[in-house]
Design a protein that fits this description.
The complex is a heterodimer of chains A (249) and B (329). Chain A has 249 residues and is an all-alpha fold. Chain A is built from ten helices and no strands. Chain A has helices at residues 2-23, 32-58, 64-70, 80-83, 89-110, 116-144, 148-166, 175-180, 187-204, 228-238. The radius of gyration of chain A is 18 Å and the shape is globular. The two termini of chain A are 32 Å apart. Chain B has 329 residues and is mainly alpha-helical. Chain B has a single domain, classed as Up-down Bundle (Ferritin), CATH 1.20.1260. Chain B is built from eleven helices and two strands. In chain B, strand 1 and strand 2 form a beta hairpin. Chain B is globular. Classes of the chains: A mainly alpha (249), B mainly alpha (329). The interface between A and B is large, with 47 and 43 residues.
Chain lengths: 249, 329
């Protein structure tokens, strides 16, 4: 069961942390419509995380609130990409684009998983992520073809975010049992499909994927190595819950 | 959520119908008396347009500024259920701003001009958002009682004569009624919870009571000005009427939870049927509305920062060969 738990933890933590980051745009978006869009995506992500923590609970882990709100940053399995601060809208958009394509493909793959509780959740979730990807693609193309400033920002941010995005596909210790039991086809396969999926949109946005010689995935997130930003995020997220962890709020 | 539009008491007392075409004015007033709605392309007196822009704009600003004190607690909300609900609630508020800016735009002022007037301090927003939300319980009290006040105000204004504003308010009120339930559920949980939670929610109520009493604005002087605005169905109820309605509906609910309202004079007067209360400190109200509150500077600074940081995004969206239509509301 350890292999399934590891898979669930990394997905749940990615979604919880990115949902949290997305929600930080509330009240601060560049236009009201984007404020609202990021809030919708935040709600979806947090909801998806909750569904995965629920499966973990059914597999014997702590109940979802305790699991999400009582762990320390070093116990989180998310990729470092999702924990970085929102910064400007260019970084948030690029991260949204790079992560959500991977997320969509992952859930598509998992919708046929032999582990039925996860397959069932994945079939529901993939219908929602479709809209996240749709939104990301529109904005990437729009800003990549906008003003000189927006073009320059998008390219330099893509360059900066790229190696963090490759960190999404950091392999765990259980790649082979996951594959042999037809639970999940693995991070390598996911990365391959991801690259195929994002390349045409990046071209339409007039942007360039950094040359392969410079690819240097930022690893460690899946094993609990994080930037100081995750500490801050986790402390803030659990600030109220930890006042009285065993009570209803 | 939103309080009553603030009308400057020092405004010149000249007649607000000076220079209007009296025949058109009589037709306009007859339409309103028949219960018809005024639509964007219809004739309307200058002052009607001006007051409505001011009201709707202040209302819209209140929605986005109001998202700031509550938004602070989204990232701290305890547990999945609260986190998801608060996100959805604050998202609604931003959505209300979007609806309202569109309604105000039908009267001829662009969203950009309105936001510019907000961040330069030229136009106001509801005074309550110039106070801080110190704890989670403050966010819960806001969601319950400030939204309750807003509903009273907005249900009244939804029956006003300007079509686009009324329609926006109908939708807003439906959503606000969920906020009220959300806020009430939160406050009930804290008030019936552990001693730490009960203390937290009582302190928040004590802190928020004066801003809540200020929320509906000072007593309206029944002037010629207010009389005309009420005849035109721009202003739908007096500030005191709304405050009384609020006290009547919510004080018993607060007491039911075992919470104490910090006003020893607060009681229902059996003879008049109205609530007696200690008159709020209106000097404090004026001081805060004119920029002297604990959070005025911070709220505007955050809004300015957001506008500044988003400028390049908006510039990239404007393509010179695209055509833009007038807003529909």
């Amino acid at each position: 069961m350890q292999h399934i738990k590891e898979l669930l933890y990394k997905m749940a933590d990615d979604l919880l942390v990115l949902g949290h980051r997305n929600s930080e745009w509330t009240g601060l978006g560049p236009i009201l419509e984007e404020d609202i869009a990021f809030s919708s995506m935040a709600q979806d992500k947090i909801g998806h995380a909750q569904a995965l923590f629920q499966i973990l609970f059914e597999l014997g882990e702590a109940e979802p609130d305790t699991n999400a709100f009582m762990r320390e940053a070093k116990q989180f399995h998310n990729s470092q990409l999702v924990e970085l601060p929102n910064d400007d809208y260019d970084f948030s958009t690029i991260r949204h684009f790079l992560f959500d394509h991977a997320d969509q493909i992952r859930f598509n793959m998992l919708s046929e998983s032999s582990f039925e509780p996860l397959a069932k959740v994945a079939r529901k979730i993939k219908g929602e992520i479709k809209y996240h990807v749709f939104h990301a693609d529109i904005w990437l193309v729009k800003l990549g073809n906008g003003t000189e400033e927006s073009k320059a920002r998008m390219q330099s941010t893509l360059n900066m975010a790229w190696n963090y995005a490759l960190g999404i596909f950091e392999e765990g210790d259980f790649e082979s049992p996951l594959q042999s039991e037809n639970i999940f086809a693995g991070e390598k396969e996911l990365q391959k499909r991801w690259l195929e999926a994002i390349t045409p949109t990046i071209e339409k946005a007039n942007l360039k994927i950094p040359s392969e010689a410079d690819w240097n995935p930022v690893l460690g997130g899946r094993k609990g190595y994080h930037t100081e930003h995750l500490d801050q995020l986790v402390n803030e997220m659990s600030e109220v819950f930890r006042i009285e962890p065993n009570t209803e709020w | 959520m939103y309080g009553n539009a603030y009308i400057d008491p020092n405004e010149k007392p000249k007649s607000i119908i000076d220079g209007e075409d009296l025949i058109k004015l009589a037709e306009f007033e007859a339409r309103i008396a028949r219960g018809e709605k005024i639509e964007p392309k219809d004739w309307m007196p200058r002052e009607y347009r001006k007051q409505l822009i001011r009201m709707i704009e202040q209302h819209a600003h209140s929605e986005i500024i109001g998202a700031l004190p509550e938004g602070t607690w989204i990232t701290r909300a305890p547990g999945f259920k609260r986190k998801l609900a608060l996100m959805a609630k604050v998202q609604d508020e931003v959505g209300h701003a979007q609806l309202l800016y569109s309604a105000a735009e039908t009267l001829g002022k662009s969203r950009e001009a309105m936001i510019n007037d907000l961040i330069t301090g030229k136009s106001k927003y509801s005074n309550v958002f110039n106070y801080p939300a110190y704890t989670w319980a403050d966010a819960c009290i806001i969601a319950w009682l400030i939204d309750a006040g807003a509903i009273i105000n907005q249900v009244a204004n939804a029956k006003g004569s300007y079509g686009p504003y009324g329609r926006a308010l109908d939708r807003i009120c439906t959503e606000e009624s969920f906020h009220l339930k959300y806020g009430h559920d939160n406050v009930v949980t804290l008030a019936t919870g552990t001693p730490v939670q009960r203390k937290m929610v009582q302190e928040a109520l004590t802190r928020w009571w004066p801003p809540i009493m200020h929320f509906f604005g000072p007593s309206d002087k029944i002037s010629n000005h207010t009389e005309i605005l009420m005849r035109w169905k721009v202003k739908m109820a007096t500030n005191d009427d709304m405050r009384q309605q609020f006290l009547n509906m919510y004080v018993p609910k607060i007491w039911d939870l075992g919470l104490t309202v910090p006003d020893t004079n607060l009681k229902k007067n059996e003879e008049t049927g109205l609530w007696d209360y200690t008159e709020p400190d209106w000097d404090e109200f004026k001081r805060v509305i004119n920029g002297g509150g604990p959070c005025n500077a911070e709220r505007l600074a955050v809004r300015r920062m957001a506008e500044e940081k988003g400028r390049w995004v908006r510039a990239a969206l404007l393509q010179k060969d695209e055509k833009y239509v007038t807003p529909l509301a």
